Every structure is written in structure tokens, then in C-alpha cells.
Amino acid sequence: MDTYKVLTNKAVARIFWLYSANAFVIIGLWLALAYYGVSSTISLAVMLSVLLVLLLLSSYWVVNFTMKPLAYVRQGILHVSSNTSRLSAPQVEELQFGRELATQLLGNVYTMAAQTTHTTRQQQATTEVAYDQTFLNALPTPVFTVTGSGVLHYINDAGLLFLGQPITARAELQNKNIYDVLNLTFPNEATYETWLQNARSKVLKATISWERVRLVDANNTPIKQFDMAASYSKAGGEIESIITIFDHSDLYNKDDQEISFVAMAVHELRTPLTVMRGYIEVFEDELGPTLSPELKDFMHKMNASAQQLTAFVSNILNVARVEENQLLLTLQKHNLKEIMVSAVSDLQLRAAVHGKHIELSVPDTIPDVAVDRISLHEVINNLVDNAIKYSDKSDKIIISAHTESGMVQIDVQDFGLGIPDSVVPKLFDKFYRSHRSKVQIGGTGLGLYLCKAIVTALGGNIWVHTKEGAGSTFSFTIEPYSEDKHAAGASQDGIMRGAHGWIKNHSMYRR
Amino acid sequence: MDKKPNLLCIEDENFIGELYTRALTHAGYDVKVIADGEAALAESLTNAYDIILLDIMLPSMSGVEILRRLKDQSQTPPLKAKIIITTNLDQEESTREKIEKMADGYLVKAEITPRELVAYLQQIKL
Fold first, then answer.
1. What pLDDT score was predicted for residue A325?
2. CA distance A273 to A309
């Protein structure tokens, strides 16, 4: 039944019983007055007075109970309205008369209030998002917002332009994994992914920037080159990180296409070297048998020096590449023994003219390795070259390889001067060669610096054990080739690595 | 082999040209040296050669451009010659890879002597 009707019936019933009670009182009073023989005039006056008082009291009571539900509803409305002096919510259960109606009305009030609040909040949120998007689309730089699960949340107009996508592609892109949308390579191991993982585990907020990041296609060919900044926030709600890109493709591509000064200088140095080595060979071949042992020795020394200079010229170029983050190695499966035999045969002449002999000791069981052949050659070349220089009076240099804790270790041992302990920590720094000034030995201090950069890029370590007067053993490790590790995810040309480690931003996505 | 293999040496550095000619002639090749890029391209197109040694830094037309023209099937019918890049220019890895894919070999001249070049060429199947 309608709660209002219930209330009315209840009120009518209450008032009926009230007035009946009043009538009984008056009748009782009249009978009592008649019994005591009070004159009718006086009794009439008394009865009228009592009736008046009773009516006043009854009216007050009626008003009081009929108004009470209204008071509760009023309190409820004031409670939910945005009035600053809010009343507490009414306790309708206390109400005896009109509880049904009050409960119903308050229920309606609360529902309406809740709806209003929701709508207002929704309108606010929509306005904020619309404002954000207008703002983001007005920015000249590409912006990508990314959720905690790595999904692209929003890409602005500049971002779509950057990717060469039409505005209509936005909806489709926004459901994709960020690593699908942005296939990036970084100049060193500090990629967006590693930074993000680090930030997640350590901080609430973080920002970072990179230089010379590349956007690459499926064949790893760079499409764009740019600087990039990112922010991370744990409390950012749905959006965990925001990526901003500063496209410098024109500038950086030009750098890459132009033959650098170093490459040009190297080319110019190599041309006369090629010629010199060629003519020396002609002389060796055709005059060799007729020369005295002394002249023959001079010829060998000339040849060895030309070889050494050639190797050094390559060193310069590679150091320049390390400096510019341009030393990219291609790791492929190689037979280590073959590389070492070939490296040693190239070095044997240089050793011989200095009166040294290189002993090579590689077991046939040594596993294949994942390396860049030319670069590994370069490391061995530099270490043996140092061994020749610092062998002093000893005439033996030993190169060996063995497996150690899952890695392949190569040792280059000499029995010469050794290195003072104080300089060992600086040995792999660029241009470091102060200890050499004690003795008359040439060198630039680039060799070990380059060795370290290459070995690191190959995924290994390099170190030295040395004792003054007893000689030094330079050791480095490289990874044995593994189908699982090196074939999976590698292009047909092998895995590309930078001088400072992995450069792909992909490990997470590949998983 | 009954007939001497024909070799075209595209090289603008006279001394290197001389050294290579000498070593290769001794090894039994018929050698012709051309220094100019455009002239070398025209000569290559006669398809008279078994091996072409191609330098990259050349006057009038770069070796990369010559290689591109020679390998462009729409402009040039397939040549019988093996094309070996002989340069002292160290390219960026990606550039070098692209060039290596188009050619049959890539040698840095400073790293090899004429005798080693001959040994390298002799192991190529013509």
C-alpha cells in the first residue's frame, strides 16, 4: 500500500482514539460534577475549561507526531545537499510514526543525490580528459602515455605523424603493446625497459632522457633517430609512464651518412700503407733469396712495422666508434681455434722481428664461440702486441684458451716487465700509459681501452694478473655459442651488440 | 683452366693498381685497370670479365653506385663476373652489410698484401 495512505490512516486512527479519550474525560467529569450536585452553570464552565485545555494539548500532540517524519526528511535532504553546515544522517529507525514514508522519501533523496554527484564527477573527468587530449595534441612533440601493463594508453597527433600513421589509426594503436608501437634500439644497455623496471622496484617517481635512440623496422633498419625523455609515476593511476620524443632524424642521419673525419683520415692513412706493404712484399719475394741475413732482417722489421701501423690505424677507427656509441658488433658462431691460429700467424712476424716466439695452446675440444670475428682478432692482436712490447728479455709469449664456469677464457701470458700494482686499476682507461714512460716503449694507451670495450660488447670480462719482474697474464672471457641464447631472437646476421652491452629494447617483449 | 681468367681492377690509386696488376698477372690473370668510375661501369657492362675488383672511393662515380647499377636487374642483365669490393674505407656496420650483400666479397686493402689477395681470389669458384 502507498506509504502516504498508510500514514494518513494511522493519523486518522490516532486522532480518533485521542478524541474518544477526550470525550470520555469530559463525560466522566460531567457525571462526577452531577453526582456532587454542582450547579449546572458552574459545571458547564468547568467542563468548557477542561475541554479547552484538552484540545490544546491534543492539538500540540497531533502536530508533534504528524510533523516528525517531515523533520526526518528535512534532515536527510540537508544531509546530502552541498550545504557547508551539514547535518548528520537522520536515524529513521527511531521514528515510530511515518517511518515507512520517511524511509521511502529519504531513499529517493539519497538515490537522486548519488546520481547527481556521479554525473558531476563524470562530467569533470570527461572535461579533464578532453582538456588533456587537446593539450597533448597541441604539443609539437610526439607523446605516448603507457599503462602499467605496457599498453599504449594515448598517442598524440604529433606521435601519429612521427610514426607516419593517419589520425584514424589512433584507436587501433592505443590497444597495442608499447614495444609493438615503438620498436626501439638504444645506444647502450640503459634502455627504456631496464629503466622502467628499475624505477618500479625502487621509486615512486622518476624521469630520464636518452640521446640517439632509434626507431627501427622489422629488419632493424633505422627509420628515425631522436632524443627521448620519459617519466614514471607509481601514483599516476592508469598511466604509469609517459614517453616524449624529440625527433632529430635529419641531423643524426646526416651524421651517419657523412663519412666521419676519422673514417676519412683512416682511409687516407691506409692507402699509403697498402702500397708500402705491397712493395715490401715484392722485395721480400724477389730479393729475399739474394739478401744478406742482416738485410733480410731489416726487411722483416719494415714489414712488421707496416703491419703494426695498419693494426693501429684500425684501432683509432674503433676507438672513435666506441666514443660515439657506434661500435656495433655482430655475434656469430665461430670456431675459436681457427680465429686464434689465424691471429697468431698474422702476429708471428711481428713477434719474430722482436725476437719473440708465440706459443699457441688451444684444445680441440674448445667450444664454438659467439663473437664478431674481426673484433676478437683485434683484441688478441692488441694483447699480443702489448706482450711483445713488455716482454723485455724473455722471448716467450703463450696464448691459450680453456673453458671456465661456462665461459671460454683466453689468456695471453708474457714473462717480461710486469706492471706495478698502483697502475693496474687504471690500465683499461683511455690513453693510460704512464708506467710505460719508464722504458722506451711506444704506444698510445688506446689498445687496452679498446679491448675492454670490445670484450664487454661480446658479453665477457677482461682482467690482468701481473707481478713486476715476472710478467703479466691478460685474460678475457667470451660466451660459448649456444643455439638457445644466440640463435633465438637473432636475425640471420646474428645478434647486434653495442660497445656497452645489449642494445635491443626487446627482452621483455620477446619473453 | 684453359683460358686465363679476365680480371678488371677498378682502382684510382696508381701504385695499388700497379702492385695488383703485377701480382695477379704473375698468378695467371689477364688484368685491366681502370681508375675512373663511369668508364669502369661502361667497361664492366661489356661482361668480358670473370672477376671485378671494385674500389669504393673513385672519381666521377662511387664504387657503391657502380655496384648498384651492376646488380640492378632492371637495368643490367646478370653479369658473369664475381664482384669483390677492395677498399680502405671502413664503413659503418650497417652500410658495410648492405654493400656485402650486393657483392661477392669485401676486402680491406690495408689488411692484405697482393699475395694474400691472389690467395683469396684463387679460392673463389669461377
1. 65
2. 8
DSSP A224: E
Residue A98 has phi, psi (to 5 degrees) of: 80, 20
Neighbours of A487 (CB within 10 A): 13
Separation between Cα atoms, residue A17 and residue A421, nearest integer Å: 113
- Residue contact B110–A313, C-beta within 8 A: yes
Element (H or E) spanning B109, and its range? none
- Is B1 within the bounds of a domain? no
Residue of chain B with shortest Cα separation from A311 = B111
Residue A509: the pLDDT is 27
Task: Show me where the domains of chain A are located.
Answer: 3-114, 139-256, 259-326, 327-510
CATH, domain range A327-510: 3.30.565.10
A188 φψ region: left (φ > 0), alpha (ψ -120 to 50), beta (else):
beta
C-alpha cell at A483: 643455439
> Quick one: DSSP state of residue A332?
E
List Cβ neighbours of A460 (8 Å cut-off, separation of 6 or more).
A407, A476, A477, A478, A479
pLDDT at A506: 32
Buried b (16+ CB within 10 A) or exposed e, A454-466: bbbbbbbebebeb
Residue spans of chain A under pLDDT 50: 437, 439-440, 489-493, 499-511
Cell 526528511 sits on residue: A73
Q: What is the pLDDT of residue A243?
A: 94
**Chain A residues in contact with chain B using a Cβ-Cβ cutoff of 8 Å:** 221-222, 256, 259, 263, 266-267, 270-271, 273-275, 277-279, 281-282, 285, 310, 313-314, 317, 326, 328, 330, 493, 496
Give the separation between CA A376 and CA A374, rounded to whole angstroms: 6
Quote ipTM for the complex. 0.84
Instruction: Look at residue A505 in the predicted model and tell me its pLDDT.
Output: 34
A98 to each of A3, A107, A493, how far by Cα in Å?
Answer: 8, 14, 86
For A161-170, what is each residue's pLDDT tens digit? Answer: 999 888 888 8
Within 8 A by CB and 6+ apart from B119, the residues are none
Tell me yes or no: is domain A139-256 CATH 3.30.450.20. yes
pLDDT of A83 reads 58
Grid coordinates representing B90 are: 671502413
Give the domain extent around B57.
6-122
CATH number at residue B118: 3.40.50.2300
**Cα A36 from Cα A28, distance rounded (Å):** 13
CB A220 within 8 A of CB A185: yes
Angle at the Cα of B26 (from B22 to B32), degrees rounded to 5? 50
Q: Checking phi first, is residue A119 left (phi over 0); if not, alpha (psi -120 to 50) or beta?
A: alpha
Helix axes A3-35, A99-138, angle to 10 degrees: 150
Structural domain contains residue B36: yes
A259-326 is classed in which CATH architecture?
Orthogonal Bundle (1.10)
CA–CA gap between residue A478 and residue A233 (Å, rounded): 39
A285/B108 Cβ within 8 A: no
| Number of domains composing chain B | 1
